């Protein structure tokens, strides 16, 4: 039986359409952020308001502070009045000094999962992707991991469960993942995780996903399309993150994900008095 090869589509781009798609993404994202903010308790709103600032600067009066040498700086981020007011609620003497940064260590912050959807509830936890620059060395990553752990502890003191994941988009495209939380043990399902990111990822601060600019008919030539976007300067590489295309979903990942969910259900089940001594 002859195998019919699928022909690659001829790539065509429209700058006006690309800008419209980017604007629509940002408008929808902002609307989702507002819904999340409106549904939070006051102290949890404080966490969300402060989150990008905590990764943008190292300030001894703010939660998570580790060292002045810890990685900092969120790409294309400038704290607004609400964020600065939230910081002053924690420390009345807090002052923000804007400094020029040659290279931002954090490219973007994303909230994953049910946030901003009808599935969200006050019992939902926060899964946060901390997207880092690709050339960050191991020592800097360890410092950022510790800072994130400190922020997790601060959130826990407000009865808010938060899990941070350190994400390098280039490493992710290559099939490598580095996490900051034990909750990520099931994230070995690469394509399912990427699907969740594109479906639910809520941009808190920083760069948007270039994937949103790739029309569905070009998904099979994703890398070539993105390469042309950058080469023809339709997109500034300093404005986007690229976790790769999603033209297929391996069936094996569904099996692995099912096993992981079963494992979590068993391991997180409260231990009864009877089973403890069996």
From TrEMBL:
Alphabetized Pfam families for the sequence: Adenyl_cycl_N, Adenylate_cycl
GO molecular function, one term: adenylate cyclase activity
Sequence ranges assigned to domain Adenylate cyclase class-I N-terminal in this UniProt record: 18-212
InterPro entries given in the database record: Adenylate_cyclase_1 (IPR000274), Adenylate_cyclase_1_N (IPR024685)
GO terms classed as biological process: cAMP biosynthetic process
Name used for this protein in its record: Adenylate cyclase class-I N-terminal domain-containing protein
Protein species of origin: Thiohalobacter thiocyanaticus
Classification of source organism: Bacteria, Pseudomonadati, Pseudomonadota, Gammaproteobacteria, Thiohalobacterales
């Amino acid at each position: 039986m002859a195998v019919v090869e699928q022909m690659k589509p001829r790539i065509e781009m429209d700058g006006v359409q690309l800008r419209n798609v980017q604007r629509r993404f940002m408008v929808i994202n902002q609307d989702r952020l507002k819904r999340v903010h409106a549904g939070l308790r006051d102290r949890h709103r404080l966490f969300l308001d402060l989150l990008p600032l905590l990764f943008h600067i190292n300030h001894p009066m703010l939660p998570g502070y580790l060292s002045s040498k810890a990685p900092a700086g969120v790409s294309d981020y400038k704290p607004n009045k609400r964020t600065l007011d939230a910081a002053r609620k924690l420390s009345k003497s807090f002052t923000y000094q804007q400094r020029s940064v040659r290279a931002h260590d954090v490219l973007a912050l994303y909230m994953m999962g049910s946030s901003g959807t009808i599935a969200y509830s006050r019992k939902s936890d926060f899964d946060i992707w901390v997207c880092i620059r690709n050339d960050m060395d191991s020592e800097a990553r360890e410092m950022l991991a510790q800072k994130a752990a400190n922020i997790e502890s601060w959130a826990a003191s407000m009865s808010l469960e938060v899990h941070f994941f350190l994400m390098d988009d280039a490493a992710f495209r290559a099939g490598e993942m580095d996490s900051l939380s034990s909750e990520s043990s099931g994230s070995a399902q690469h394509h399912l995780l990427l699907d969740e990111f594109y479906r639910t990822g809520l941009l808190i601060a920083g760069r948007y996903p270039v994937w949103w600019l790739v029309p569905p008919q070009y998904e099979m030539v994703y890398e070539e399309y993105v390469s042309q976007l950058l080469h023809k300067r339709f997109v500034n590489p300093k404005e986007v993150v690229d976790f790769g295309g999603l033209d297929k979903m391996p069936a094996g990942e569904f099996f692995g994900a099912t096993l992981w969910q079963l494992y979590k259900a068993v391991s997180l089940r409260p231990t009864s008095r009877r089973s403890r001594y069996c």
